[in-house]
């Protein structure tokens, strides 16, 4: 008898506490949502909604804002296969990505490692390395215009050291224009990423290095045998960021070359811009946007997977 | 917050190591590659065009400010600067107003919704700006805000929310649990906790976020190019226009424009260097 009363009492108490917890959880959820709502609404309406719109528009044929759009499903994507400009932009984008990543990541990693040794002067070097990241794309384009133009700094430097370079038109030459634009990215990219690597390397426990030093390993060995394997995941992240930055870049082409000379600097990003705002083929431009988006997603997955596979060895 | 710098051994080994010598060599070489173009632009702004071509790296014989005046005459740099200041401060304020309560909720209120909301925001890193440029142009036109600076004040916070939320909520997670508990006992509600308790404590985090967003917003080019017209140029648009206005390139004029546009950012960089580097690293790691 006494026992059953006790159990009933306990059960009752259990019910009331769980009710209390549930009510509390509900109240917490309401508070949570009302605090998050403004930011969430903002983000959904100005980031995700436009992204969805990109997918909608990519299935239409639409030639000006005030003209009616016609639903054509996947025709824009089918057309891509026979569009020579897509092939050219893919090739240019590929070159841009390859040179832009291989020209940045290895050097940035080694410089970042050197900075992380904290030799005298590393602070001022770090500041200098980081300073190009403060420049806008417009400022970068204008600075390098002064370097690449026919009577610019590069040609006067080449003349000064004895090359006959007086009439080299770097940005208007088919074989150099694309690399000139990539060089702008590499110029600032090495510095920016080296500081990222520096900061990431600085978070490694120092015992790791000390043990290796006691075993008689030099810096070069520590760099490749200890720091590099430990940093593979981070290198993957940095590579992804670099990849996405290049993939969705069009500013240098807009500011400096207009995709030219010929189609030499026509990249996927610039093609999107060109179709949307110059040729007014809105549907097709958004189809290129969809392509750009999926290339980015695939690249993220691939690069991260490669990085984690390598770091498991 | 900045103790990640001090955790590393100051010196690992004494004496001249070939690796260290090589490191210095390449570091100084690269530092020179960075400094020379920047120096070239700065001195070019004060020289006339024949001097720029003949002696690109020489210091200006006399400080010539005529290019700055010409920049004002040609593209109204001052007006563009004021518009940029308006857009930047508006967008900065709006970003914090939106992100601060949301970051508090994500970091300090335990519900199952929290990771969902976080992953929605982290989608932002996957969305290429170029891809949503056209849909946003259409939305802006539909809203009647095309060529109006308000459009950018509304849009830039959306672009900067993911990074801002990550940094602010990361900052708040490190604060001790007991913080709200004492306030709850005192009978404070959530809004009071946020404004009187968290806002003052989170000032360092807010400063980092403000600085990073300032750089992003001040330097933004593509959306401003599409959404603004000649009456509402931002400083970046005015800068790019210095080239387009004439058939031959007046490089001194362009250099003056570059200098004007980069001065505010470099002032911020000098004072908040550590915050900028730390913030960018935290953003990259969380990506």
If you had to describe this structure to a student in words, what would you say it looks like?
The complex is a heterodimer of chains A (313) and B (287). Chain A is an all-alpha fold and 313 residues long. Chain A folds into two domains: 2-58; 75-312, MetI-like fold, CATH 1.10.3720.10. Helix content of chain A is 75%, strand content 1%. In chain A, strand 1 (60-61) and strand 2 form a beta hairpin. With 287 residues, chain B is mainly alpha-helical. Chain B folds into two domains: 18-64, no CATH class; 68-286, MetI-like (MetI-like fold). Helix content of chain B is 74%, strand content 0%. The radius of gyration of chain B is 23 Å and the shape is globular. At the A-B interface, helix 1, helix 4, helix 5, helix 6 and helix 8 of A face helix 1, helix 4, helix 5, helix 6 and helix 7 of B.
Number of domains of chain A: 2
Apparent shape of chain A: flat
**Cα radius of gyration of chain B in angstroms:** 23 Å
Q: How far is the N terminus from the C terminus of chain A?
A: 66 Å
- How would you characterize the largest beta sheet of chain A? 2 strands, antiparallel
Strand content of chain B is under 5%
* CATH homologous superfamily (4th level) name of the largest domain in chain B: MetI-like
Largest sheet of chain B: none
Helix content of chain B: over 70%
Strand segment count of chain B: 0
Nearest-angstrom radius of gyration of chain A? 28 Å
> What oligomerization state is this entry in?
heterodimer
What is the number of independent domains of chain B?
2
CATH architecture of the largest domain in chain A: Orthogonal Bundle
Q: Which CATH class of the largest domain in chain B? A: Mainly Alpha
């Amino acid at each position: 008898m006494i026992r059953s009363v006790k159990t009933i009492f306990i059960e009752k108490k259990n019910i009331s506490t769980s009710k209390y917890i549930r009510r509390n959880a509900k109240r917490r959820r309401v508070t949570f949502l009302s605090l998050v709502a403004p930011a969430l609404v903002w983000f959904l309406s100005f980031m995700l909604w436009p992204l969805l719109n990109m997918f909608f528009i990519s299935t239409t044929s639409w030639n000006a804002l005030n003209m009616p759009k016609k639903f054509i499903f996947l025709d824009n994507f089918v057309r891509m296969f026979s569009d020579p400009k897509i092939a050219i932009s893919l090739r240019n984008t590929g070159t841009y990505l390859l040179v832009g990543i291989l020209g940045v990541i290895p050097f940035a990693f080694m410089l970042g490692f050197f900075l992380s040794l904290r030799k005298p002067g590393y602070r001022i070097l770090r500041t200098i390395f980081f300073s190009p990241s403060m420049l806008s794309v417009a400022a970068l384009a204008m600075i390098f215009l002064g370097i690449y133009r026919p009577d610019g700094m590069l040609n006067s430097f080449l003349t000064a050291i004895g090359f006959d370079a007086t009439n080299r038109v770097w940005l208007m030459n088919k074989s150099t224009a694309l690399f000139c634009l990539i060089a702008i990215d590499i110029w600032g990219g090495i510095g920016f990423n080296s500081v990222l690597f520096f900061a990431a390397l600085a978070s490694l426990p120092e015992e790791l290095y000390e043990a290796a030093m006691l075993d008689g390993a030099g810096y070069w060995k520590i760099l490749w045998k200890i720091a590099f394997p430990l940093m593979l995941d981070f290198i993957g992240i940095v590579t992804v960021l670099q990849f996405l930055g290049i993939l969705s870049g069009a500013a240098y082409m807009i500011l400096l070359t207009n995709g030219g000379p010929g189609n030499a600097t026509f990249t996927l990003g610039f093609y999107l811009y060109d179709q949307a705002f110059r040729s007014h083929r809105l549907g097709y431009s958004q189809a290129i946007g969809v392509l750009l988006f999926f290339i980015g997603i695939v690249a993220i997955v691939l690069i991260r997977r490669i990085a984690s596979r390598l770091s498991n060895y | 917050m900045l103790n990640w710098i001090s955790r590393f051994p100051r010196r690992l080994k004494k004496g001249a190591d070939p690796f260290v010598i090589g490191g210095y060599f390449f570091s100084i070489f690269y530092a020179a590659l960075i400094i020379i173009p920047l120096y070239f632009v700065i001195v070019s702004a004060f020289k006339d065009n024949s001097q720029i071509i003949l002696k690109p790296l020489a210091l200006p014989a006399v400080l010539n400010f005529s290019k700055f005046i010409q920049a004002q005459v040609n593209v109204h740099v001052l007006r563009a600067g004021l518009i940029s200041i308006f857009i930047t401060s508006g967008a900065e304020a709006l970003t914090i107003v939106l992100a601060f309560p949301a970051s508090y909720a994500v970091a300090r209120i335990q519900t199952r919704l929290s990771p969902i909301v976080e992953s929605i925001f982290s989608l932002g890193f996957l969305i290429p700006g170029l891809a949503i440029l056209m849909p946003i142009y259409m939305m802006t036109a539909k809203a009647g805000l095309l060529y109006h600076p308000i459009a950018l004040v509304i849009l830039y916070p959306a672009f900067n929310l993911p990074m801002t939320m990550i940094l602010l909520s990361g900052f708040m997670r490190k604060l001790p649990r007991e913080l709200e508990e004492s306030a709850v006992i005192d009978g404070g509600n959530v809004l009071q906790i946020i404004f009187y308790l968290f806002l003052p404590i989170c000032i360092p985090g807010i400063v980092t976020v403000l600085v990073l967003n300032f750089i992003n917003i001040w330097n933004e080019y593509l959306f401003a190019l599409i959404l603004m017209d000649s009456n509402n140029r931002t400083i970046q648009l005015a800068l790019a226009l210095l080239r387009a206005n004439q058939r031959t390139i007046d490089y001194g004029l362009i250099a003056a424009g570059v200098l004007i546009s980069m001065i505010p950012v470099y002032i911020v960089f000098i004072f908040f260097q550590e915050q900028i580097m730390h913030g960018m690293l935290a953003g990259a790691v969380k990506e």
